[in-house]
Amino acid sequence: MSTLSAAVVADRATTNADRPTGSTPLLPVVGSSLSVPLVTGDAVRYVNLDYAATAPALVSVAERVAQNLTYYSSVHRGAGWPSVVSTTLYEQSRETVAEFVGARPNDVVVFTRNTTDSLNLLASVVPQGCHVIHLDAEHHGNLLSWERCDHTVVAVRRDLKATLAALEAALAAASLRGAREPVPAMVAVTGASNVTGEALALAEIVALAKAHGARVAVDGAQLVPHRRVDMTALDIDYLAFSGHKLYAPYGTGALIGRRDWLDAGAPYLRGGGAVHEVDRSGTDWAEAPARHEGGTPNLLGAIAIAAACEALAALPEGSLQAHEHVLRSRLEAGLATLPDVRMLRIWPEDDVDRVAVVGFTVQGRDPQRVATWLSAEHGIGVRHGRFCAHQLVSVLAPLEGVAGIPSIGPTTTASANVPQALRASLGVGSTIFDVDRLVAALRQLSVSGEFWNYAKKDGQWVPSPDPRSWGPAGEYRDFVGPCRT
CA geometry: angle at 430 spanning 429 and 435, to 5°? Predict the structure, then answer.
């Protein structure tokens, strides 16, 4: 059966009257019917299994943004009616975000660009001498941000209990230091791994931290789109997440948390709107959130992220988790039938909650080439590389016969290989038919291999030749970032 006909058969299954759970999207997303070209000359419905990198906009979010474009104007300092409306919308968006995550009445919501921006903001305001403790399994946003601070990196163990024990030991060491020098401490952890989808035991981590007088910051980039988070109930001090992973890809993120550090810390983004008064004698800075939001704010991004929060909050209780459980379980069951596929887990023996993110490798095959093949011959989008979590991927996906890619930094050698993996991630717009398309394609790869030719270009596998048209952007060009992974 050809690539096109297999994809069409899978999609036609959606017309069946008896629809199993997960056969339809939980919420409509923009681009759900996008048709993409294949190297064979056919076109097929695009299967987006890359939600963890950036999620498509909800239709309701895009409609809300379009609706309010009519009123788009300056925020906070305009007397015209559109400016008054824009200011109201911006501040209401802040209130919506706070309510969505269960913030405390005195918590501050600072709008940022994304999760990484939020964590860098937090790192810039922690008190001098604050000792930050985090795991080595973090995304780089929650790993590199703390390099400017006094910090301890705790290596994850192969079971959750041992990992929590190591975290508690680091907290105890920080407490002993705090007894000699009265400095605060903070634990910064991811809510859910962007490599494996495993969710950390936040309630237990918070309890450990509080027992040692430490605060807790959570990287919610992969958790907030999949699980409801209640900061008050969990006693989380700070939470960071991105609009572009929450079905609101309009350039806004958020940092929510306690006011004291955010008011006392140096302004993160200095400029207009961040001050009370400026004269030759000095600057009187505003309190948070304005203190950290200098310049014209991203009004449309704030409207979008609030609209996404409203849409997810309106879902029936448990429906999001149930939808994703069906999809993830079906994906894991399908991958488990493929002898060459190995799924990645941090704690394989522990029954931990997992969001709809599955990392895996295909034995003996370069993940970047597999991802390119899935796109070129099947119209499926997955993520490949190290997912900005180099340390974790190095542990979970050692080379073991899988071809890596040449490292390219100035301190590396051109022949060095690095571990990589593949990642499939799902969301409210995903269905079981998307899952089946991926499993069927990988089974075909195992049985009959590639149909097209592939060649290296600038260190990356590309179809050779690649007859696909780039469409509205004009000529196709292969842009590669400095990290490549």
Answer: 170
CA distances from 278 to 274, 284, 389, 451 (A): 10, 6, 42, 66
Instruction: List 134's β-bridge partners, or say none.
Output: 153, 188
Q: What is the pLDDT of residue 398?
A: 77
**Amino acid occupying residue 289:** P
Characterize 289-328 residue by residue with b for buried, 16 or more Cβ atoms within 10 angstroms of its Cβ, and e for exposed: bbbbbbeebbbbbbbbbbbbbbbbeeeeeeebbebbbbbb
Rounded to 5°, angle at Cα 248 from 103 and 286: 50
Sign for the CA dihedral angle at 288, 294, 295, 297 comes to: negative
3-class secondary-structure state, position 341? strand
CA distance 239 to 237: 7
Residues classed as catalytic: 388
Calpha distance 196→345 (Å, rounded): 6
CB neighbours (10 Å) of residue 399? 13
What sign does the CA torsion over 471, 472, 478, 482 have?
negative
C-alpha pair distances (Å), 142 with each of 216, 221, 239, 358: 12, 10, 12, 20
| pTM (predicted TM-score) | 0.91
Amino acid letter at 73? S
Task: Give backbone dihedrals phi and psi of 343, rounded to 5 degrees, phi first.
Answer: -80, 150
Query: Among 332, 406, 413, which Cα is nearest to 366's?
Result: 406
Which residue in 305, 314, 266 sits closest to 125, CA to CA? 266
C-alpha to C-alpha distance for 83 and 91, rounded to whole angstroms = 12
Q: What is the pLDDT of residues 6-34, one digit of tens each?
A: 443 444 444 434 567 789 999 999 999 99
